[in-house]
Amino acid sequence: MSDNLYAYGVTPDDGSLAVDATGVDGSEDVSTVSHGPLAAVVSPVDDMDPERTDENVRAHDDVLRAVMVDAERTVVPMQFGMVFKGKRPLKNILRTGRPTFSRSLNDIDGTYELGVKLVAEEGATVDREAVAERVDERLAPVSVGTVENDLFSDRLVVNSSYLVERDEREAFDEAIDDIDEAYDALTLQYTGPWAPYNFVDVAIEAK
Amino acid sequence: MATNTPNASSLAEVLDRILDKGMVIDVWARISVVGIEILTVEARVVVASVDTFIHYAQQISMIEQASQTGELEDMQNLETGVGPIEPRAIEVEES
């Protein structure tokens, strides 16, 4: 058994964290490694480079969702595959990267990400700009941040991620209701809650 | 009470996020046990290189290679920053 630790994300160290989710490579042993005010959510893995199987990809997301929703913690999500060679390198990063992690956690404090897509029926004529503008006008007051994602299909009219405070969730759901009712010809895809993947754009480089 | 609540997400939505987004930590920073100097980069822009890190990264790389291949003689080429221990005569005073 190696000492390798798969890291899911970084959260404030607010005491013990119970995570009821299966981790990467089927681990039932999700725990935290703390240093100072920060804790990394981890589980043991053998491989430094775990396979990107559907199960592993889902497990990464499931663990973060459990931390965020069940434990109501703010979490800076890691990209898939961040395996550390034991506790020491991980604590090293928590120590040296502390200003970065703390700032990121501060930016996203008490929030999570919700995804909003509006898809037009085949051949439908839609005033895309008008729809996008109205949707954002309705959702901006009940959110604290937004990122417009790639419109990878002609039928995709809106593809945005919103950063929403936990306490504003009901208001956001209601705004989504209004949008759903306003556009019969558009199919709404409302997803999440996600860890704020689209609102943490930081890399710790080693060049 | 709102009728819309977010759905359990499709695998495509999960993939789109966790393979492309989220915090990235360079592999050398994830394996190093020495007091490395790290470089935090916002918006995935590489700003500058840190000579100190390159030095450590090379050393770590060599340790990794050596331990993986079992060719520990590679380790002789390492600059560890600590010179070889000079043999010293130990004087024992008899009292």
How does this model look, in words?
The complex is a heterodimer of chains A (207) and B (95). Chain A has two domains: 5-108; 111-197, 2-Layer Sandwich (Alpha-Beta Plaits), CATH 3.30.70.260. In chain A, 30% of the residues lie in helices and 29% in strands. Chain A has helices at 54-70, 87-96, 98-107, 128-139, 169-182; strands at 5-12, 31-35, 38-44, 76-77, 83-84, 111-120, 145-148, 156-165, 186-194, 202-205. In chain A, the strands form two sheets. In chain A, strands 1, 2, 3, 4 and 5 form a five-stranded antiparallel sheet that branches. A four-stranded antiparallel sheet of chain A has the order 7-8-6-9. Chain A is elongated, with a radius of gyration of 19 Å. The two termini of chain A are 30 Å apart. The model of chain A has no long low-confidence stretch (mean pLDDT 93). Chain B is mainly alpha-helical and 95 residues long. Chain B contains three helices and two strands; from the N terminus they run αβαβα. The radius of gyration of chain B is 24 Å and the shape is elongated. The relative contact order of chain B is 0.09. Residues 43-56 and 72-95 of chain B have low confidence and may be disordered. The interface between A and B is large, with 56 and 46 residues.
User: How would you classify the helix and strand content of chain B by structural class?
Assistant: mainly alpha
- End-to-end distance of chain B, in Å? 91 Å
Fraction of residues in helix of chain A: 25-40%
Tally of strands of chain B: 2
Radius of gyration of chain A: 19 Å
Mean pLDDT of chain A: 93
Structure keywords:
heterodimer, A: 207 residues, alpha+beta, Alpha-Beta Plaits, five-stranded antiparallel β-sheet, four-stranded antiparallel β-sheet, 5 helices, 10 strands, 30% helix, 29% strand, elongated, B: 95 residues, mainly alpha, 34% helix, disordered C terminus
